[in-house]
Amino acid sequence: MRSYQPDLTPPWKRSAPVPEVPAEPDLVVEEVATGFCGAVIRCEKTAQGPTVTLEDRFGKHRVFPMEPRGFLLEGKVVTLVRPGPAGPVRPTRTASGSVAVPGARARVARAGRIYVEGRHDAELVERVWGDDLRIEGVVVEYLEGVDDLPAIVGEFGPGPDARLGVLVDHLVPGSKESRIAAQVTGDHVLVVGHPYIDVWEAVKPSSVGIDAWPVVPRGQDWKTGVCRALGWPENTGAAWQHILSKVRSYKDLEPQLLGRVEELIDFVTLPD
């Protein structure tokens, strides 16, 4: 019979136990060694031991071994384990990929704002980031074009406690938009943009059910040209509502737009 051997390791050298968390689908964690953050897609049993597949907000997948103390959940070290047949209710995510906060109330609006070019841009941002923006107290307004942006910034009066972020369509070097952006960019104003002619193009074609966005000849209204090329009725308002209805989460948007909106939200919510 084996005799009992006491653990003589000093208490201050012993590793504190960490909670075991079932790797339920959609649970958002960060892998400790690499810093990769993503939602659980699946767990698998391999010859080397159990693994978990994570998907980040840009749709990239990575597989990690489910090692003890291998992940962070809301900043705390945990050990992921394979979920049982009757695991706890899994957390849900907002359309932007953030962890949902059940019962959270909208924060009182900040002085800072995010401006986008038009109504379609504002509706798309609301569709994907609306829950996040309400919790952060960030209001989104639209400009109906960037020509008046310098005057709007001047009237707004941005400062340390009232930052202004602006999302511009087709912000490419040498464009009119880039010249206007250069006039207003400063410590408390951040202007970013995506390369698309219109925010319609920031929706993945596969989500809309088309192979690609059509190339519209110069001199022709782009949205009307898209409707003609795709055989849709030349009603751009109805076409946009059709496109918007296909956007269910960040996975339906191109990374070039995702990164810019996240950048603006971070900018206007920085501590004073």
Briefly, what is this?
This protein has 272 residues and is α/β, with parallel strands linked by helices. Helices cover 26% and strands 21% of the residues.
Descriptive notes:
It is built from seven helices and eleven strands. The chain is an alpha/beta fold and 272 residues long. The strands form two sheets. Strands 1-7-6-2-3-4-5 form a seven-stranded mixed sheet, with no helix packed on it. Strands 9-8-10-11 form a four-stranded parallel sheet, sandwiched between helices. The radius of gyration is 24 Å and the shape is globular. This is DUF3097 domain-containing protein.
List keywords for this structure.
7 helices, DUF3097 domain-containing protein, 272 residues, alpha/beta, single chain, DUF3097_C, DUF3097_N, 4-stranded parallel β-sheet
Summarize the topology.
Blueprint: E1 20-22, E2 28-31, E3 37-46, E4 49-55, E5 61-65, E6 71-73, E7 76-81, E8 113-116, H1 119-136, E9 139-142, H2 149-156, E10 164-168, H3 176-184, E11 189-193, H4 205-208, H5 222-230, H6 236-245, H7 255-268
Parallel strand pairs: 1-7, 8-9, 8-10, 10-11
Antiparallel strand pairs: 2-3, 2-6, 3-4, 4-5, 6-7
Helix content: 25-40%
Distance between the termini: 66 Å
Largest sheet descriptor? 7 strands, mixed
Share of residues in strands: 15-25%
Major beta sheet, strand line-up = 1-7-6-2-3-4-5
Number of strands: 11
- Class inferred from helices and paired strands: alpha/beta
Organism: Streptomyces pakalii
Protein name: DUF3097 domain-containing protein
InterPro entries: DUF3097_C, DUF3097_N
Pfam family, one: DUF3097_C
